[in-house]
Specification:
two-stranded antiparallel sheet; 6 helices; 8-stranded mixed sheet; 239 residues; 10 strands; alpha/beta
Length: 239
């Protein structure tokens, strides 16, 4: 029997300097990060966790950030919605969506984030999408190569995504949105330092995107926003 997405994301640690654990690895005291389990659930299951999921040294201070207790998979009217902490996991869920015929090749990505996340990873994925793709290939690459800043370019390289619409300013929210697209939201768009961008406008625009998007990924980005605050805004998005 083949493994499901829930079998892969069953709660595990990364101990080596790879993926998100490579940041400042040699200098950090904490040498491992946790990747929470994925469950099929509702917003009531979306709660902060008590394990470090991201560690980085900034200005000579080690910052160890807690993430989510669980990643959440919701299905609303046949629309798949994934909520997780570190943003690179979006790559896994996008390609799972392609394997399950929930996402088409040459999709448009609407990326709502204060960062572009367009850096190139240290290793390419595997070329264009083919039928022999396996969840294990995607999982290994997502967790042990990719990090929070470089997961979009490989999705472009595979042909899964044809173009990216960046929404990273209040004026960008006025850009025309395609009829069919993958919606990718980083909740750091609601971080306190971006309060100069009217939060009510952001909520309204994102709610309209959610209604028409074909597939949705949402990252709570522990390094950039408090997880309780991120969860609060996610609840508002789905009111």
């Amino acid at each position: 029997m083949s493994k499901s997405i829930y079998d892969f994301y069953n709660g595990f640690y990364i101990n080596q300097p790879v993926g998100n654990n490579a940041f400042s690895y040699a200098k950090r005291k904490k040498k491992q990060i946790y990747v929470p389990p994925l469950i099929q659930g509702n917003l009531s299951d979306l709660t902060p966790g008590d394990k470090i999921v991201f560690s980085e040294i900034e200005d000579d201070i080690e910052h160890n950030k807690f993430g989510l207790k669980n990643f959440i998979h919701r299905i609303i009217n046949d629309k798949n919605i994934f909520i997780f902490d570190n943003h690179n996991h979006a790559f896994f869920f996008w390609l799972w969506g392609w394997m399950e015929k929930k996402v088409e090749t040459d999709s448009i990505l609407v990326h709502v984030d204060q960062h572009t996340d367009m850096r190139n990873p240290s290793k390419p994925f595997r070329g264009k999408l083919k039928e022999n793709l396996t969840l294990d290939m995607i999982f290994q690459y997502t967790n042990y190569v990719l990090n929070v800043g470089n997961f979009i370019q490989p999705a472009l390289d595979t042909g899964l995504i044809s173009s990216v619409e960046m929404i990273n300013s209040i004026t960008a929210f006025d850009n025309p949105i395609p009829e069919k697209f993958i919606l990718d939201i980083d909740m750091d768009i609601f971080a306190p330092e971006l309060d100069f961008m009217d939060n009510s406008i952001k909520l309204m625009k994102l709610q309209s995107y959610i209604k028409i998007a074909s597939f949705i990924t949402i990252a709570t980005s522990p390094f950039f926003i408090d997880q309780s605050l991120a969860i609060n805004y996610i609840n508002q998005l789905f009111e």
